[in-house]
Amino acid sequence: MFLVYPSVDTFRRSLMNSNSTEFVGLESYARVFAKEETQLALLNSLLWMIVFTGVTTALGLLIAVMIERVRYDVIVKTLVFLPMAISFTAAAVIWRFVYGFQPTGFPQWGAANAALTTLGFDSHPFLISKEVIPFYGINNVAVIVAAVWMTTGFAMMVFSAAIRGLPQELLEAARVDGAKEWQVFWHIIRPSIMPTIYVVATVLVISALKVFDLVFVMTGGLFETDVVANRMYKEMFEYREFGIATALSVILLFLSLPVIAINIRRFRRQERER
Amino acid sequence: MRPTNATQGLKAIRLQPDTWIQRVIRAASRGPLHLVLIAIALLWTFPSVGLLVSSFRPKLNVATSGWWTAFQLPFEFTLENYAFVLFRRGVGDSFVSSILITVPATFLTILVASFAAFAFAWMSFRLRDFLFFFVIALLVVPLQMTLIPLLNLLGFFKLNATYLGIWLVHMGFGLPFAVFLLRNFFAALPREMLEASQVDGASSRVVFFKIVLPLSTPALASLAIFMFLWIWNDLLVALIFLGGSPELVPGILPPVSADRGPLTLTIASLVSSRGADWELLTAAAFVSMLLPLVVFFALQRYFVRGLLTGGLRG
To answer: According to the model, what pLDDT value does residue B29 have?
Structure first.
């Protein structure tokens, strides 16, 4: 009731003009793909999907593998997991503070720029700078870093549980046979937890698509950091472009459809085992 | 084989507690691993600690020096920032508002979800499996899909910017995940036990309240934590359904007592209006983190368990 009727209605509105009074077919979709701002938001969301998902999965896996070999694992786990509990809004405040900027030569109170200037570099306005580093603007990467900081704990926890669930004799046997740690990881751990990696990655892809709060509070989508969810909010409540806003949300749904299919398939398999 | 004296001797030597020097040497041999892990732990803690420390520093110090310099003499710490945001910037009211939104919404969701989950798990009715697939599909419907129509719907019932309205919205968004999680837990309960009590003449209601719910405390606990954190930490729903400004439009039902939005909303508007007053922002942000952190530390076990069974809400 709270989701079905609205979804259908959204779909209907996406086929209508900007104040939902006239049927215009796919025109709103055409405008989404033609307009520069929405193109940018779509492109950035794609970047989020790839970079955020990739980095968070890899980092979570790395930490999960490493903490298996030390005795203070609980402490590291708790610290990395902690940001999961707080809001994106609070995290955005935390990271805006970290990225705080003063011109070179002035005392830096933002941790990131303090580190830069201590090492002898110039200070850098991370959240404004569009300067392109390897593939995209620094400010985009800066926001993604905050998201990675928040979510890595989730990936780590899930991977850590999966690794603990593996038969320990198998790993020990390989070690006794002289396998190096990275070989144990690559040839035994990685293939056996592949399904888990898959699940974590899909969850992260979905949350990357929907990321809103962080961008809204950290940059407001300015300086070319806009993403689909934030663009939608703007089109809806600032420009009253209901056609474009709803078309964007339908695109969002289509991008997440494969995940729905995967979820249902997984459920069916579980039921058969019941 | 019984251990010989020699191996016993060896064991005795090994079992002697390490001196700290020995420990350091052993740790150093696996240096890189420890180094990386400690670096990660610090990196993950650093930003939050910075926030916490800054929130206790006087305005002038926050604006002119890094928080890491706060630990030199003379120590200058103050509670003024907290007093100011709590009583002069509406953060205190927002805290109350956040509680008034989060607690009933969490309770409502769990109540409705447990009924639905019980039906899905243990009653047979037409289209049951189809309906459940449907619930799973709803798990990943982006919230954004529903915003505009839902806003109209609430407006139609005159529920915009009321507590009841926002409870219902949060419940709507939380239900698919809640039903999914609980149904899977209920379905795993021993079938014999439920059938036996039904044979003994217990009605579905009795089975539900006397058997299923008490057995499901762990699942209910993890769900409660999840719902609590989601709703407490939500910005988007508050932003849209409370009118986009921290001042609530007075609604009809129920009267909005603390005329402020939840904490996330107040903080977001503080960021845009007083973005350079870091001593205020840090204090306000920490107030908003307080309860989640308490929940997190007190109930981490349930939180992790819920995470492993249910995953993040899509």
So the answer is: 65
- Domain spanning B84-310: CATH superfamily: MetI-like (1.10.3720.10)
Are both A145 and A200 inside the same structural domain? yes
In this structure, the answer to whether residues A111 and A209 fall within a common structural domain is yes
Which CATH number does the domain housing residue A70 bear? 1.10.3720.10
Place of tokens 């779509």: A42
Residues of chain B with CATH 1.10.3720.10: 84-310
Domain presence at residue A42 = no
Contact residues on chain B for A149, CB-CB shorter than 8 A: 44, 47
Residues A54 and A151 in one domain: yes
Tokens of B252: 């009809």
Instruction: Kindly report which listed range (A76-80, B126-130, B293-297) carries the lowest average pLDDT score.
Output: B126-130
- Domain of residue A268: give its range: 1-34+241-274
The partner residue sitting opposite A79, judged by closest CB among B45, B141, B176, is B45
- Summarize the confidence of residues B160-186 as an average pLDDT: 79
Residue A145 shares a structural domain with residue A270: no
Give the tens place of pLDDT for each residue, B175-188. 888 888 788 777 77
Number of domain units in chain A: 2
Contact list in B for residue A67 (CB cut-off 8 A) is 37
* Domain-embedded: residue A211: yes
Q: For chain A, list residues with pLDDT below 50.
A: none
Does B268 lie at the interface with A, CB-CB under 8 angstroms?
yes
Q: Is the CB of residue A29 less than 8 Å away from at least one CB of chain B?
A: no
Positive or negative torsion for Cα A29, A31, A32, A33? positive
A176 & A249 share domain: no
Q: Write the residue in B41, B172, B285 that is nearest to A3 by C-beta.
A: B172
Interface contact B291, partner A, CB < 8 A: no
Helices B278-310 and B217-233 cross at an angle (nearest 10°) of 150
Angle between helices B263-273 and B91-122 (to 10 degrees): 140
Using the Cβ of B156 and the Cβ atoms of chain A, whether some distance falls under 8 Å is answered with: no
Sign of the dihedral defined by the CA atoms of residues A247, A250, A256, A257, in that order = negative
DSSP letter for each residue of A43-83:
HHHHHIIIIIHHHHHHHHHHHHHHHTTSS-HHHHHHHHHGG
Same domain flag for A92 and A144: yes
Closest Cβ–Cβ partner in B41, B139, B263 for A76: B41
Measure the CA–CA gap between B260 and B246, rounded to whole angstroms: 5
- If asked whether residues A12 and A85 sit together in one domain, one would say no
Say yes or no for a CB contact (<8 Å) between A5 and B268. Answer: no
B67 contacts A109? CB cut-off 8 A:
yes
Would you say residue B114 has pLDDT above 50?
Answer: yes
Determine the pLDDT at residue A133: 59
pLDDT of B233: 83
ipTM beyond 0.90?
A: no
Q: Please check whether residue A12 lies inside any domain of the structure.
A: yes
CB contact under 8 A, B308 and A9: no
Q: Are A228 and A248 in contact (CB under 8 A)?
A: yes
Question: Do residue A27 and residue A69 come from a single domain?
Answer: no
B311/A97 Cβ within 8 A: no
Is the CB of A80 less than 8 angstroms away from the CB of B41? yes
Q: CB A190: neighbour CB atoms within 10 A?
A: 13
Q: Do B236 and A213 touch (CB under 8 A)?
A: yes
